[in-house]
Amino acid sequence: MDRRSRQRITEGCIKGILFICASLSILTTIGIIGILIFETVEFFREVSFFEFLTDPQWTPLFVDKHFGIMSLVCGTALVAFIAMLVAIPLGLLSAVYLSEYASARFREVVKPLLEILAGVPTVVYGYFALLFVTPLLQVLIPGLAGFNALAPGIVMGIMILPMVSSLSEDAMYAVPMDLKEGAYALGATRFQVAVKVVIPAALSGIMSSFVLAVSRAIGETMIVTIASGQQPRLTLNPLVPIETITAYIVQVSLGDTPSGTLEYRTIFAAGMTLFVFTLALNLMSHWLKERFREEYR
């Protein structure tokens, strides 16, 4: 066998290995979706889809069973909304400062420190919300329950803040210097350049970071499991205990519910609901990126 033949065989083997590695994630995704669809269909053989969407109560583990997912959806949306109220303004302001005001040395030091927040285990954030933030808020809000949506929402906002800040700062930093210099030449101040030139030019990346942060907040598990309580209710009051979709999945997955039962299949129906929401948000992020993308030559 000559050298060229050995090289073709080697390249063919490498190509096959790379193809298998690339296909693994696709096959895993197909498997997850297949299991979700199969178990969800089995669930809806016993539960009306109309009841699933309209019943205000979610008590599948009680004697009086109700299967209204909207109470879990409401709790999930409430915590995610509070988190975004914290993460979006703080993340955007920090991104503007790092991109337009901070020195290169300061940026090199502070940005990695800010991103360390994303590496803290979420269970630590959960106990931080329960044992520190909640008692602190109870001093300011006497009627706040021990388990509530406000504390985990605030802490979740702190957790996803690096995602908003880092992605937005990267988008702003990529804006061509010619645009900034043109604005300075016209007499604009640094603040005017940041607000009227840099942010509009980087809007695609900024909006994508917002949507991805929402997806991360909706899919968060341990913070809400520990600090928000396990009381599904259809409410927009952040001062009372609530339950999110992910917290309910953890509750049922602890092992007390027999596998194969209707109660057990509720986690797949809830998981499919969560999958649909996150998929819609990811598609929205892609659409926003294409819709507001600016191309510079």
CATH topology of the largest domain: MetI-like fold
Question: Major sheet: size, sense and barrel closure?
Answer: none
- If you compute it from the alpha carbons, what radius of gyration comes out, rounded to the nearest whole angstrom? 24 Å
Indicate the CATH class of the largest domain.
Mainly Alpha
Low-confidence stretches: none
Shape: globular
Write down the domain tally: 2
Approximate helicity band: over 70%
Which class of secondary structure composition applies to the elements?
mainly alpha
Order of helices and strands: HHHHHHHHHHHH
Provide the CATH architecture of the largest domain: Orthogonal Bundle
Q: Quickly count the helices.
A: 12
Query: On the 0-100 scale, what is the average pLDDT?
Result: 86
Number of strands: 0
Proportion of residues in β-strands: under 5%
Cα distance spanning the termini: 50 Å
The fourth-level CATH homologous superfamily of the largest domain is: MetI-like
